[in-house]
Write a structure and sequence with these properties.
Number of helices: 10
Pfam families: XG_FTase (PF03254)
CATH class of the largest domain: Alpha Beta
Number of strands: 9
Strand content: 5-15%
Helix content: 25-40%
Strand order of the largest sheet: 5-4-3-6-7-8
CATH architecture of the largest domain: 3-Layer(aba) Sandwich
Radius of gyration: 23 Å
Family: Belongs to the glycosyltransferase 37 family.
Structural class: alpha/beta
Organism: Hibiscus sabdariffa (roselle)
CATH topology of the largest domain: Rossmann fold
Shape: elongated
Function: May be involved in cell wall biosynthesis.
Subcellular location: Golgi apparatus, Golgi stack membrane
């Protein structure tokens, strides 16, 4: 965190003091921990009628949470949770939409966020201030490759199929989406040179991917062939790390810088199931074109769809009805969403006052 973000509040810190009493327990918290709220409920170890409660409660709200963990999103359970001095939350989900399912939260949330689709945009821009090092990566790259273009298109590529790639079906999907939706012009492959105008429109394409080949493919297409429209297309990729290396600080700095650079584009194309693209769309307040997740290593048809809003999708919605005490399809209550898992966990500690 120290190398990624500045502290958002004066005289306050993202970090707990090193002598914080429970700090050594954090690494051991997971879905199987005895201290999880879900496990305490399952084993009848906790109830609102108890006179003596533990000093803290661990809430497991990650993608693998079960029906008992999801009771956090029920109003009746919130009455019990308010009695604890400390709540420790471990999550890799963006679960803000679920808070609107609770009547006791809804009025206050509506006052704070009258426009629900801007929540991540406002909180992200307010809290996530890149460190000086990361901001340097962002500004130097933007000024060198993107600032002078007439239009900027961001393309974020993430695949989850086995193998390193690049994959031909993904290349075809990117082309089908960007050209089919007229985000990029077609090229003249007939051999006849199209004379560009004296002042051709210049479009900068920013590609982000762990893999080099998708950038190389698009760069060569627009280098070797003129566009039918006469536009000049420049293709750029800041890094190609080949694989995710979250243990390396510089790798994480580059990742944050590229998310932010994507958010500075005019039009955005992202990959389904990828938080990388979701962060970019939220920070930039953009409605991206989302590349459908491929099935059986084939190019989806259609290749992409326009997002419904700038707000990131609800990663793992709780299919649970608090009143009925059973599973339910919450799509009727919430907008349709894609299931997405963040690459890393965030551990949040709340002091209840």
């Amino acid at each position: 965190m120290a190398g990624l973000f500045c502290e958002p509040f004066p005289e306050r810190s993202w970090f707990l003091p090193l002598n914080f009493p429970m700090i050594k327990k954090f690494d051991g918290f997971d879905q199987k921990s005895r201290e999880t709220y879900g496990n305490l409920l399952r084993n009848n170890k906790i109830s609102a009628s108890m006179k003596s409660l533990p000093s803290y409660l661990y809430l497991h709200l990650a993608h693998d949470y079960d029906d008992y963990d999801k009771m956090f999103f029920c109003d009746d359970d919130q009455a019990l949770l308010k009695k604890f001095s400390w709540l420790i939350v471990k999550t890799d989900n963006y679960f803000v939409p679920s808070l609107f399912l609770m009547p006791s939260f809804e009025d206050e949330l509506n006052k704070m966020f009258p426009d629900k689709v801007t929540i991540f945009h406002h909180l992200g821009r307010y809290l996530f201030h890149p460190s000086n090092h990361v901001w340097g990566l962002i500004t130097r790259y933007y000024k060198a490759y993107l600032s002078k273009a007439d239009e900027r298109l961001g393309i974020q590529v993430r695949t989850f199929d086995k193998g390193a790639g690049p994959f031909r079906y993904v290349k075809d999907q990117i082309s089908a989406c960007t050209i089919g939706e007229k985000l990029l012009p077609e090229v003249d492959v007939s051999g006849f040179t199209v004379n560009p105008s004296k002042n051709p429109k210049v479009k900068a394409v920013l590609m982000t991917s762990l893999v080099y080949g998708y950038y190389e493919n698009m760069r060569d297409i627009y280098w070797e062939h003129p566009t039918m429209s006469g536009e000049i297309i420049g293709v750029h990729q800041p890094s190609h790390e080949e694989q995710q290396q979250t243990e390396k600080p510089l790798h994480n700095m580059k990742a944050l810088a590229e998310m932010y650079l994507l958010s500075l584009t005019d039009v955005l194309v992202t990959s389904a199931w990828s938080t990388f693209g979701y962060v970019a769309q939220g920070l930039g307040g953009l409605k991206p074109w989302i590349l459908y997740k491929s099935e059986n290593q084939t190019t989806p048809n259609p290749p992409c769809v326009r997002a419904m809003s700038m707000e990131p999708c609800f990663h793992a919605p709780p299919f649970y009805d608090c009143k009925a005490k059973k599973g339910i399809d919450t799509e009727r209550k919430l907008r349709p969403s894609l299931a997405v898992v963040l690459p890393n966990y965030f551990l949040l500690i709340f002091r209840i006052r």
